Amino acid sequence: MTDEQWLAIGRKPLEFRKGDIVRRFQEEFFEIREVSDNGKTFLVNNNTNRVKRYFRFNRYHCDLICPVERRLDFKEMMGDE
């Protein structure tokens, strides 16, 4: 994303937040679970085949796919956990 695109969604460039959906390089999609205090790394998880895996990613290696403010989680809408 360009700096202008980040600003258009109300964020500083490379500002990731808990709940954002990201993709590292051309890999799978991940949900941010925790952002470090300096904002440069974050803990992500991916529920693949019902197995939770956790990774720590550098923000410079990730693309924002969906900001947390724009997510639509069907499980929450339906009352499922």
Automatic annotation (TrEMBL):
- The superkingdom of the source organism is Bacteria
| Protein's name according to its UniProt entry | Uncharacterized protein
